[in-house]
Write a structure and sequence with these properties.
The protein has 329 residues and is of the alpha/beta class. It has 11 helices and 10 strands. A 4-stranded parallel sheet has the order 2-1-3-4. A 4-stranded parallel sheet has the order 8-7-9-10, sandwiched between helices. The protein has a two-stranded antiparallel ribbon with strand order 5-6. Strand 3, helix 5 and strand 4 form a beta-alpha-beta unit. The longest helix is centred in the middle third of the chain and has 28 residues. It binds zinc ion. Zinc ion binds next to loops.
């Protein structure tokens, strides 16, 4: 129980952006009674975090990892918890969350729960990117600084929650999850660390390949369908000059497409990035108007329900190869 308390305290200190109210609640109440250490029941909130958690825990006997939001649902930006979800949450001995505001939808539910469940915020320590703002074309990607400070009167508070789209950040996430699980289940700590380290090194190898792309590219400008893949492009040293949609669930207006058409003709980006899970109608329309080619990438926000833990790495390798084909000349 002592290590659990220690974990909760350190986790509570780190939960800066995420569920601060809940974290306070956890701290002020007695430690939860966990199942036997080897019987951890982990509930991961979103598909990519589920995959990364599974990769860490798969070698540890007796650990069960479940996914909260259905694999095909994508990001829960406007998600409402179902009764089934509540049951899943209340059965968990630990929750692993994306963080960066992605889980605002379950903030209230966790507070209302009669038992306080340890929560691992997988985004702890990540350098967040600012969120894309609707109707504005400011690119907030690292390495692309333009001078808009004075004229800009909208808020810059929101962060882009899709850190998982970067293999380099995913490596960081995997190590953080392993350390946190190890604190809850000290007997498994070594196993978690070993699995995490092997996986993180492979993810970082993809990150290194991506990092080589921007350096050699004549045209570093890209346009995204949504800002989901922004972290991947930060890794690659390529500059996201615009995202067509504010998020996955909001279609662009005709005025927005017109504005983007003008912008693309002027700035001549190298590619427009589409995602296999979403309609490429807007992307195709922009491409036809401007002659900028389309490249399809999968940021792994969603995927098949039966995906194995290696799915994330497989898809990121494919993304990397597709980008190398395009930018690696
Ligand atoms: Zn999203």
């Amino acid at each position: 129980m002592r290590s659990t308390r220690k974990f909760l305290l350190s986790a509570g200190r780190c939960l800066l952006l995420f569920l601060s109210v809940v974290a306070t609640g956890i701290l002020s109440l007695p430690s939860p009674c966990l199942a036997a250490p080897s019987g951890l029941h982990v509930v991961a909130t979103t598909f990519p975090i589920y995959l990364l958690t599974s990769a860490v825990a798969q070698g540890r006997p007796g650990v069960r990892v479940d996914l909260l939001i259905p694999a095909q649902a994508g990001c829960p930006h406007d998600y409402a918890l179902t009764t089934g979800d509540m049951k899943k949450l209340s059965a968990a001995s630990v929750i692993v969350a994306n963080g960066l505001g992605m889980e605002d939808f379950m903030d209230k539910a966790l507070r209302a729960m009669d038992r306080h469940i340890p929560l691992i915020d997988s985004s702890v320590g990540i350098q967040p990117l600012a969120a894309q703002e609707d109707g504005h074309d400011h690119a907030h990607g690292e390495g692309h600084h333009h001078d808009h400070g004075e004229q800009c009167n909208h808020s810059h508070g929101a962060v882009n929650p899709h850190a998982f789209s970067s293999p380099r950040q995913a490596a960081w996430i995997v190590r953080h999850i392993a350390r946190s699980l190890g604190e809850l289940d000290p007997q498994g700590a070594e196993e978690y660390a070993r699995a995490a380290e092997a996986y993180a090194l492979r993810l970082e190898a993809i990150g290194h390949r991506l990092a080589a792309l921007g350096a050699g590219a004549a045209n570093k400008k890209v346009v995204l369908l949504h800002d989901t893949a922004a972290y991947l492009f930060r890794d690659a040293g390529l500059h996201v000059i615009a995202a067509i949609q504010e998020n996955e669930h909001v279609q662009p207006s005709a005025a927005r497409i017109l504005e983007l058409t003008r912008r693309l003709r002027q700035d001549k980006p190298a590619v427009i990035v589409s995602e296999p899970q979403y309609s490429d109608k807007a992307v195709r329309a922009l491409s036809a108007e401007t002659g900028v080619p389309v490249l399809q990438l999968d940021p792994v926000a969603s995927g098949p329900a039966d995906a194995d833990p290696g799915y994330y790495e497989q898809v990121m390798l494919k993304n990397c190869e597709a980008l190398e084909k395009y930018f690696g000349k």
